[in-house]
Amino acid sequence: MRKILTLFSTCLILLVLSGCNSGIQTQSSEGETEIQNLEVHFIDVGQGDATLIKCGDASMLIDGGENDKGTLIQNYMNKQGVKSLDYFIVTHPDSDHCGGADVIITKYDIDTIIMPNYEKDTATYRDVVQSLDYKRYSVTPPVVGNTYSLGDAEFTIIGPNKKNYGNDANNYSVAIVLKHGRKRFVFTGDAEEEAEMDIVNNKIDISAQVLKVGHHGSKSSSTEKFIKAVSPEYGVISCGEENEYGHPHGATLNTLRKEGVKVFRTDEQGSIVATSDGKEITWNTVPTDSWKAGEPTKSSTENKKKDIEPKEQVEETTNNSQKITYVLNTESKKFHKPTCDSLPTTNRSNSMQKREELIAQEYMPCKKCNP
Ligand SMILES: [Zn+2]
Ligand SMILES: [Zn+2]
Question: Cα of 327 to ligand 1 centre, how many Å?
Answer without folding.
Answer: 45
